[in-house]
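From the methods appendix. Each design record in this collection lists the tokenized structure first, followed by the designed amino acid sequence. Records were kept in a plain field format so they could be parsed without special tools. The example shown here is representative of the layout used throughout.

RECORD:
FOLD TOKENS (127 positions):
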């Protein structure tokens, strides 16, 4: 059975030359799920920005930043819904998701304003 989970409700992040990581209490715990589709809903993005979806089997900072644990997206200025990744059993994607999922944003040198939310569409293990 599928479930929808809001990884990040609407938020606006602004600034320049910074990396912002989602706060730990907001990370998604995907225990019991076998597949995930991740959708980014952009309300406003005025400057191209990099968004990382990071995953780790445990809540350890170093595990989130290892090569296969990170999938990066270069987002162009604009708005709209963007499907980011579908990962799971036999999907053959670059992201092999683990138990915990979070986002990280790298703002460029220009003053950036980014309003977004992220939805996860999950399938339970065994379905």
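DESIGN:
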């Amino acid at each position: 059975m599928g479930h929808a989970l809001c990884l990040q409700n609407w938020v606006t992040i602004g600034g320049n030359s910074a990396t912002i990581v989602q706060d730990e209490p907001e990370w998604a715990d995907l225990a019991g799920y076998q597949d995930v589709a991740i959708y980014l809903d952009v309300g406003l993005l005025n400057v191209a920005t990099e968004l990382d979806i990071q995953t780790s089997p445990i809540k350890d900072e170093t595990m989130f930043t290892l090569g296969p644990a990170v999938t990066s997206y270069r987002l162009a200025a604009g708005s709209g819904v963007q499907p980011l990744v579908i990962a799971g059993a036999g999907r053959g994607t670059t992201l092999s998701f683990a138990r915990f999922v979070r986002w990280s944003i790298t703002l460029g040198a220009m003053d950036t304003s980014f309003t977004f939310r992220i939805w996860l569409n999950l399938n339970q293990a065994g379905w």
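APPENDIX NOTE: The mean pLDDT is 84.
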